[in-house]
Design goal:
homodimer, about 350 residues, 434 Repressor (Amino-terminal Domain), 13 helices, about 40% helix
């Protein structure tokens, strides 16, 4: 077990400098602090060594995600992780994290000060301050839905989003759909980018037309439904794939408000199989992530890192959960000129439906 | 535990038909046999149920790869797998397999007849007969270096070849190389294709020129060295990345025969860190696959499948092992017209070398 003296000797600085760096003292440059902390991590230094007989600690760092209640998206992920970590003798802390928290302290420093041996990180966006540090940090971290190139101390776990999008497009094609739109979330998210580009690749793979004007994306669900959904309907899409279930639910409701029946006039497929998605009206067809398995794989990847086996990526299979929000394609009436130039959504007409329209 | 009678009832055929199908009898159509075997697998049917108190069995199916001796490429992979499987109570058989063997019996039938619960499959090429069956089989299989789209009963494990190629190109660029060639293996192999295309992407990523005429590939090492190596040298490459260490070793020797010093005149990087690669002259710089970890991850993926958690892909980090076959770039003299049109290799000239040339 290295001491402050060993670290000082290795870096050719004084013991006091190392101590200041490790105690977050303000009268030391950021560059030197970073150097000291990195060296301490690499040498296996631990603060408060007198307490090393206690259980060792891991943390689950959470941002942009709830995980406290069963109805929260992150709940089963956290449970899956804990179910393996606790019997293996680890203490596991859940730490909620904001961008401001990340700016206040470096990742390595945070981990060392709290004596965490490794982190399972959920919900980070690409621009999160610690994402930059994770490119070079040597403190083991497993990222859910984020990929860091080549750093052997960091692993990426998630589902195979490419396959997930492909399952949805393939299913819609089998139902007769050819004009399939896509509504997505913020492109500042690695997984949102991945699903967006996967849509284009999958459409091309299936020989279906994909163009940017059949898509829309925004961090704000309201922008997707109010700005992009009418455009997609005007472009005569008969199905829309949404990047997550909350968006799919909003799109579903907005379609109903616009007088489009789901799935009679338009099919909607979500992503994630969030806990609420079986309870929407109609229940959402969606691409499932097995969240319990994601948590277990997160622990497996982290314990592998702690045992010097470095996983670059571990991706689970996606599964299409077929409920009622997607169905066979219906034909559209030829668009009226007024519709193409106006602001109202195009009006789909179902086969076998009277001119006046009847609800199912 | 379902019986032959259950299977017959489910399929609406006679008990005798099911028995014939499961015993590989010749007087039954291939279509029906396939249907029966698939149904039996899905229902969890086991032959010879009286023996179910014995240890349960897994198999490692091996083709195009040796794994018996420590110097064999597959040895550590098999050991890594067994080190986890045996303590968990599994018997593990090693089964050598040829294309002819695969044509003689279907994968599902082979697994059922031998009472294997799952397979770890090493060394298959894309055109292997069982690769087609693995697209739809429900018998758990983990493939090393092969990816099957979307089948939840099959997982892909390997290293991140994209990162591996990138590590090599990045290192060569740092050494001053800009003209980097690539020599590859048979494109009938998933991993050979992956590495080949990764070379183009990595060169583009680093802003370096990549063109097909800076590359060559063949199943036969001799074709790579005799046909493509002289072309690459004539194109004034200063470094060559090879898709595996056996090829790198052959290229190294052929360079020396042609009077090129390695790494003085040309740098060579291999792939895999095969057991012999530290013993070549000069020792090979190469992209390492941690074979013991691959075996352990293979078992993890297979036991996950057996527990209904389906991994799509599990990729380990690659690691660049820096030995002596790659070094700083040397300048080349301007090519003579005769060299450009002739059949001899271009002659690199090292900085600070006499016209007559001296060996190091």
């Amino acid at each position: 077990m290295p001491t402050i003296i060993d670290i000082a000797a290795k870096l050719g600085v004084s013991k006091g400098t190392v101590s200041k760096a490790l105690n977050n003292s303000s009268d030391i440059s950021e560059t030197l602090r970073k150097k000291v902390v990195e060296t301490a991590v690499e040498m296996g230094y631990e603060k408060n060594r007198v307490r090393r007989d206690r259980a060792q600690k891991l943390c689950i760092i959470v941002e942009n995600m709830s995980c406290k209640n069963e109805s929260d998206f992150g709940y089963e992920i956290v449970m899956g992780f804990k179910k393996l970590a606790l019997p293996a003798g680890w203490d596991v802390d859940i730490v909620e994290m904001t961008k401001e928290d990340q700016l206040a302290v470096s990742y390595d420093m945070f981990m060392m000060q709290n004596e965490y041996k490794g982190a399972f990180i959920l919900g980070f966006a690409l621009m999160d301050p610690w994402m930059e540090e994770l490119k070079t940090s040597r403190t083991p971290a497993v990222l859910y839905d984020n990929y860091i190139l080549e750093n052997p101390a960091v692993s990426y776990i998630g589902i195979n989003n490419e396959e997930g999008v492909n399952l949805a497009v393939s299913y819609l094609k089998d139902l007769g759909h050819t004009r399939i739109g896509y509504l997505g979330g913020a492109m500042e998210s690695y997984v949102m980018r991945t699903r967006y580009y996967a849509y284009f690749r999958s459409m091309e793979y299936h020989g279906l037309p994909a163009a940017e004007d059949l898509t829309g994306y925004s961090y704000h669900i309201s922008e997707c439904t109010q700005k992009y959904l009418p455009v997609l309907l005007k472009k005569k899409v008969t199905a829309i794939l949404c990047c997550h279930d909350a968006l799919a639910h909003a799109v579903l409701n907005h379609c109903l408000e616009l007088g489009c029946r789901v799935p009679g006039d338009i099919s909607i497929i979500g992503f994630d199989d969030a806990p609420f998605s079986a309870y929407t009206t109609p229940p959402l067809t969606t691409v499932r992530q097995d969240r319990g398995a994601l948590g277990r794989c997160g622990y497996y990847a982290l314990s592998s890192l702690l045992n010097h086996t470095s996983i670059s990526s571990l991706l689970l299979r996606a599964e299409l959960i077929k409920r009622q929000s997607a169905g066979p394609v219906r034909t559209w009436e030829l668009p009226q000129k007024s519709i193409l130039t106006g602001t109202d959504a195009a009006r789909p007409v179902s086969a076998g439906r009277t001119a006046a329209g009847t609800s199912q």
